[in-house]
Amino acid sequence: MALDKQIIETLLDAAKKAMAQAHAPYSDFAVGAAVMYDDGSIELGCNVENASFGATMCAERTAINAGVVRGKTNLTAICVTNMTDTMITPCGICRQVIWEFSKDAPVICSNKDGAYKILTIAELLPHAFDLD
Ligand code: THU
Questions:
Q1: Which ligand 1 atom sits nearest the alpha carbon of residue 46?
Q2: Is the CB of 32 within 6 Å of ligand 1?
Q3: Which atom of ligand 1 is nearest to the CA of 24?
Q4: Where are the domains of the chain?
């Protein structure tokens, strides 16, 4: 799916706003995510760390889970941003979770200045796990 430039800008802006809410006192690495759905709506997520490090939730999954509780599962695009120069890509667990809700979603991977690259979830997670 080719992404409209305006949609990209909207998602970059939303992810940046979400990043400002990050709870990252242990890594000091703030991440923000914005997920778009087939109805055009957007859910936001930030990373939420915990003193028990394994309980940490990534920004992408925070956003996706927020959508699920609102009944939104038709994910059409996801954007992730962070506070460094690197255009970070979602971690392995987040890739599998994105795959659960879309097999062709574009993933906008951005840095602190809004520079981005777009990869599909199939490119990021070839040979994904499926039960069928
Ligand atoms: N993090 C995310 O939020 N998303 C990713 O895809 C990679 C990592 C968070 C988890 C942790 O709070 C911090 O970044 C450092 O790993």
A1: 3
A2: no
A3: 12
A4: 5-124
pTM of the model: 0.97
Pairwise CA distance, residues 33 & 37, whole Å: 13
Quick check: CB of 58 below 6 Å from ligand 1?
yes
Residue 19 and residue 127: Cα distance in Å, rounded?
30
Q: Retrieve residue 13's tokens.
A: 């802006």
CATH of 5-124, one of 3.50.30.10, 3.30.2350.10, 3.30.930.10, 3.40.140.10: 3.40.140.10
CB within 8 Å of 84: residues ≥ 6 apart: 29, 111, 112
User: Which of 130, 18, 15 minimizes the C-alpha distance to 77?
Assistant: 15
pLDDT, mean of residues 44-65 = 99
- Of 47, 93, 107, 124, the one to substitute when testing ligand 1's pocket (max ligand atoms within 8 A of C-beta) is 47
Query: What is the CA(29)–ligand 1 centre distance, in A?
Result: 7
pLDDT for residue 85 is more than 80:
yes
Q: Is 49 a catalytic residue?
A: no
